[in-house]
Amino acid sequence: MNINFTLVNEFLSFLIFFIFSFVFLFPKIISIINCEDLINFKNKIFLNYNKTLENSFLKKIIVIEIEIKKNFESNINNINNIIIYKKNILFNSILLEKNLFLKKIKLIFNIINRNFIKIFSFKIKTNFLKSFKKIFNDFIDYNKEFIIL
């Protein structure tokens, strides 16, 4: 049997060189050549990660601010509606109190007017009676004169 050892030798030498290069040589060469590039790459990745974190935080903060603004506006609108409602209730109660007060004043004036009318009518009656009495007395006196004479 004739085996060609040159091919086996070539294969084994390539395999040994590849393993040696892969384990010892290439990492040293790559670390020497690309040390700054690797650091820059890591820094870029870290910066991008930080930017994405910042962007996500900013987005969350903006969303929270928008929600707070909406809630604030809705709360302000609710407060305004409550204030308008309370103002209307107060205004209506003031109108009712004014109307009740006017009714009471009218009632008082009616009572006063009735009393005044009663007093006035009583005075008229008394004055009329006094005047009638006086006229009657004058008439009687006048008649007495004629009778006596």
UniProtKB/TrEMBL annotation:
Superkingdom per UniProt: Bacteria
Record flagged with keyword Membrane: yes
Keyword Membrane appears in the UniProt entry: yes
Residues passing through the membrane, by range: 12-35
Keywords in alphabetical order: Membrane, Transmembrane, Transmembrane helix
Protein name in UniProt: Uncharacterized protein
Organism: Carsonella ruddii
